[in-house]
Amino acid sequence: AQDVTFVGDRGMIKSAQIEALGERGFHYITAITKPQIERLLKQCTFQIGLFDDALAEVQEHGGVRYVLRRNAQRAQEMADTRQDKYRVLAQAVKIQNGYLAEHKRAKPEVALRKLQAQARKLGMTSWLSLGQKERILSLVEDSEALAELSRLDGCYALKTDLPPACAAKEIVHARYKDL
């Protein structure tokens, strides 16, 4: 009899499916979500320093293995996207300030609410805030919040129950990347 391993992306193979696969003698390879990675970091299952260009592996009690990697190219793409969104919002602030300067009856509070809605839509409120002093609107970056947000950029963790003798971390990674 040959062993069968199911490979699925984040969310496809969850706890219930993992349990059902195990009951039937099947193995799995999947990726875990960013919140799951955060939880495992807090529990000290693995450390942030293990996320690197080279594959790292952590084996938990019970045979669960995690294969960790940081994709530098993906991390840069995420940083670039965040910077593009910042430029868009900064330009919108500049336009609103120009409008407020030209139209003395315009209400800065209305402009501020409009910009705050745009920041929420762009998903930037965790590391940027908008302010108002008299008729001037400003954009303020929280560098600590940005560092925390970007700390896992490009990082991913694969989870499997395959024993190392059946599949080295490189094989686990390759099979997942084949998806």
What does this entry look like structurally?
With about 180 residues, this protein is of the alpha+beta class. It is about 45% helix and about 20% strand. It is built from 6 helices and 7 strands. The strands form 2 sheets. A 5-stranded mixed sheet has the order 1-2-7-4-3, sandwiched between helices. The protein has a two-stranded antiparallel sheet with strand order 5-6. Helix 1 (about 15-25) links the parallel strand 1 (about 5-10) and strand 2 (about 25-30). About 15% of the residues are buried. The model has no long low-confidence stretch (mean pLDDT about 90).
What gap, in angstroms, lies between the N and C termini? 25 Å
Quick one: overall form?
elongated
Cα gyration radius (Å): 23 Å
Number of strands: 7
What's the structural blueprint in terms of helices and strands?
Blueprint: E1 5-8, H1 15-23, E2 27-31, H2 34-42, E3 56-59, E4 65-70, H3 72-102, H4 108-121, E5 128-133, E6 136-141, H5 143-150, E7 155-160, H6 169-177
Parallel strand pairs: 1-2
Antiparallel strand pairs: 2-7, 3-4, 4-7, 5-6
Helix pairs in contact: 3-4
List keywords for this structure.
single chain; 179 residues; alpha+beta; five-stranded mixed β-sheet; two-stranded antiparallel sheet; 6 helices; 7 strands; elongated
